[in-house]
């Protein structure tokens, strides 16, 4: 599955594509919402590792506006639950992820993103 | 079962094309049978994962059927599986009966934002790369994927030095250079009933044999590979203690043999 937790780690790796290559932009996506067990400790630990702006931007693009633009200083349960939903419950099943810089499209099929590039497409 | 003979080979094609034919195509064909035989985690991997701090995110590079993905300590740590075989990933996607995050990708290519992970494992995968340069690049990919401050890495590869319990017969020829390892083809026997198209043939008939390419590592070779990879990234090899300010390095905390495999555990460090 591609969820936003994974999307937040992926970057374009095409040849000479080193700047503005993150976050990849979802395109023509088919989503599925599936409940996942809420684990507030994990989310708290995970929080500092997130690229916040990329996560919020991507969630907005997928129609989820529950997260604040700036990471809040006080973390309450409602915030953690929204974050949990955005990171772990939105599954992208079909579609693609496009590099904002070189426009390479990484297709997603049956929930598996294809990040393969031919060797000549790679730096 | 009779021991399976392992034959020495010479990689005679461009290594990428060679791997496509002799590794990736094969795993895609044997995926479901392979998957049904791969469920027992190796204890050293289990131990490595059990000692990671809560909340750490990791990469399993060459996840196969995702055997290690369920060892996430009930969600206390997180792990993303990457593999070149789409058919194995279809199993990995549901490893342990839960939705897992998996990526179709190449262990040689770094498709992540820099240092995005806290840890990475690569179990029985780097030995499928068909020359020393590519194996070194795969190690560099792992080093680049993890945090420069605290990243931990565990790598396992197949050894020339085999366990007596091993079912394999290894060719006895001398290695060309000391510690250079051996390139071999390892057969995988797929009977019709376990093959994807296997339908109406009587039991045991028409066995298909698929050969997978492996580089069997010699003693000391994995440690040298890591040293070369780290040096290429300007990392100091050794412990963090006593290093000068603004230096970065990697410590090899274990370099050992277990049950027909060599493994290393690495820890990255940086001093501000
Ligand atoms: C022996 S299996 C090990 C699977 C798993 N790590 C385990 O221990 O059960 C080797 C795996 O490496 C994968 N592999 C080989 N070369 C690869 C590459 N260049 N990039 C990604 N995966 C690769 C294969 O598809 C296969 O799933
Ligand atoms: Zn790009």
Automatic annotation (TrEMBL), chain A:
Signal peptide: none annotated. One of its GO terms (molecular function) is protein heterodimerization activity. GO terms for biological process: rRNA (guanine-N7)-methylation; tRNA methylation. It comes from the Eukaryota. Transmembrane segments: none annotated. Interacts with TRM9. Belongs to the TRM112 family. This is Trm112. It comes from Macrolepiota fuliginosa MF-IS2.
UniProtKB/TrEMBL annotation, chain B:
One of its GO terms (cellular component) is cytoplasm. The keyword Magnesium does not apply. InterPro entries: AlkB_tRNA_MeTrf/Diox, Methyltransf_11, SAM-dependent_MTases_sf. One of its GO terms (molecular function) is tRNA binding. Keywords: Methyltransferase, Transferase. GO terms for biological process: tRNA methylation; tRNA wobble uridine modification. It holds the Pfam family Methyltransf_11. Gene3D superfamilies: Vaccinia Virus protein VP39 (3.40.50.150). The keyword Transferase applies. Residues 59-136 form the Methyltransferase type domain. This is Methyltransferase type 11 domain-containing protein. It comes from Macrolepiota fuliginosa MF-IS2. The lineage of its organism: Eukaryota, Fungi, Dikarya, Basidiomycota, Agaricomycotina.
